[in-house]
Amino acid sequence: MHFGRAGEYFAMSELLLRGWNVAIPVVDVGDDVFVINDHDKTTWRVQVKSAPATRLDEGLASKAHFTLSRAQLGASHDTELFYMLMIRDELRWRFLVIPRKELFAIHRRFVDAPRSGRGRPPVASLEAKQDKLALDVTIDETGALGWHTSLTAFLERWPSDLPIVRTGPGSRRPGPGE
User: Fold this and answer.
1) pLDDT classification of 178: cutoffs 50, 70, 90
2) How many other β-carbons are positioned within 10 Å of the β-carbon of residue 64?
3) How does DSSP classify residue 129?
4) Contact 62, 89 (CB under 8 A)
């Protein structure tokens, strides 16, 4: 409970630093955070998932395990969803910000990929008996990998739909290197 909440607060802190207003629903029915651009009222939903990193034998890489909702991943809404996957790697947070549509497409490619060897293939159906969907992310200093796909484009990078807000009550000026 404390760990998950710590990840949510770190995620909210990063969004606030980018000038977005952050709202936490009183009743959590799947969306952890709503972010609002106070200038133009653009609103997005954010699902925050937090996981501790486990160092792999190779030394520099770590793995984090996330459990996602299959139904939430497949559901499109007028107010679209972003996943913030928070990874606590030793003494710092690392994160991925992935639009729902893109994460859903990555999962579909993973499910549809030809399989060989032992083990059960992943379940494709959104109506599967279990809503839980496992995502293991391997991360190192240079990139991230999940569902046999590079997630490096989402590693500590912000999508164009979540820019720094430069106008309105929550706006901020560019910092060094921005």
Assistant:
1) low
2) 24
3) S
4) yes
- Alpha-carbon distances, residue 14 vs 10, 91, 115, 177 (angstroms): 6, 17, 39, 16
Neighbours of 102 (CB within 10 A): 15
Q: How many domains does the chain have?
A: 1
Bridge partners of 55, per DSSP, are: 62
CATH number for the domain spanning 93: value is 3.40.1350
Query: What is the pTM for the complete model shown?
Result: 0.89
Domain extent, residue 42, equals 2-110+128-154
Q: Is residue 31 part of a domain?
A: yes
Per DSSP, the residues of 57-91 read: TTSS-EEEEEEEEHHHHH---SS-EEEEEEEEETT
Q: Residue holding tokens 């796909």?
A: 149
The pLDDT tens digits of the residues spanning 8-37 come to 999 999 999 999 999 999 988 889 999 999
Question: What gap in Å lies between CA 98 and CA 93, rounded to an integer?
Answer: 16
The answer as to whether 92 is a domain residue is yes
Which pLDDT tens digit goes with each residue over 38-53? 989 999 999 999 999 9
